[in-house]
Structures are given as C-alpha cells and as structure tokens.
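Q&A log
Question type: sequence-to-structure
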Amino acid sequence: MKSPHILLALLLGVVAAPVAGQSLFLDVNGDGRSDGSDVLNAGVTSVDVYLDTSHSMDGAPVPCAKSEHPDQPEQITINSYTFILSWEPVGTGSLTYGAWTDNMGFAIGVGGTQKGRDFWTGYAAPFYLAPGKHKLGTLGVTVTGTPVLQFLASTPIDNTAMTSFGSACLGSDYDNTMKLGSDFLDARGTSPSDDAPRTVWRAIQAISR
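Response status: OK
Response body:
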C-alpha cells in the first residue's frame, strides 16, 4: 500500500496539469527545466530546486489573484521560500539528504528539519527579488537505485512546515504567502527511471504530463 506522502504527491501531480499557477520543480541534469530526463540514480550527487513565481510550467503568465490594489495588482515577487521534499523507493533504491546551499542570497533561516524520508528547509531576506524564474538552490543527495523525489504541501515531522514562498502578492490567505495546495499546484519532482516497474505512480504521472 502506498504511503500517505506519495499519495499526496500523486494527488497534487494529477490536479496540477490543467491549473495555471506558479511552477516549482526539481532539476537533476542541470538544464534548468523539468522533464522526463530528470531521473535519480547512483551517479547523481545533487538536485537543483527552481521556482517561477510568475509563470506556469507551460510558460503562461500568472497574475496576482489577491491584491490590495485590484486596479494595479502587486507583482509576484519573492522574499522567502520554504519547501518539503520526500523520497519514495519506486522500483528500488534509497536517498540520503545532504546539505542545502541557497542560491538567492537569502540568509535568514526560517525553519528546517529532516526525519525519515522527509526534508524541510526555508530561508528569507529583508528584500524582494523580481518576479520570474529563480534557482532557489542546490540540495546534496546520496542515491542508490532509482528512487523518486517529490514535493509535499505538509509533513508530520513538523506541523509548521509547508511548501511556499513569500511575496508582495497577498495570496489566498491574505498573508503574503503563496502556498502549495492552495495558491499553486504545479510542483514537479523527479521522474521514475524507464526500467522501474509500471506502478500506479508511473501511470498517473504519465497522465498528468
């Protein structure tokens, strides 16, 4: 039976495809985009985390939906980020988390822990960066076999943890925080290897792409 974590990741992946919103994704091969070539294997030592605050995965622009000034909405800038990752042994394999290296110049830690298969980190800054595509940073990993790494909206290892980013845009809860699961749904993890078993996970992911 699938764990609650992978089922949540599946649900987010299925709903994400037709919905416009910010795009958060993992890049394994260094090309700065998300596709079927982003597969974990024993040769992978790090993954990059990207966020586009103002475009969906297909490149469509995303406006600020909740604003104090509807006639001139705030831009979807960024001054913080937090994210949760969880790996699953789809097929075979395991993953050990290493160090997180911020790429944004955000020096204020806003949480972070890891336990079991889950990893959570977050950083903030006293300034905003412009809307657009940002490489948040790089996470070191040690991989055996071909596990799959996915984003989660929440985790039982800390009830304050979430996947989100701070913005001048108010967000659905009017707290200047854009949250996975409510403000945006498009969060893409790594792909299963071609030689992994044809599981329900792979079938659903194929439908959602």
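Response note: The helical segments are 4-16, 200-208.
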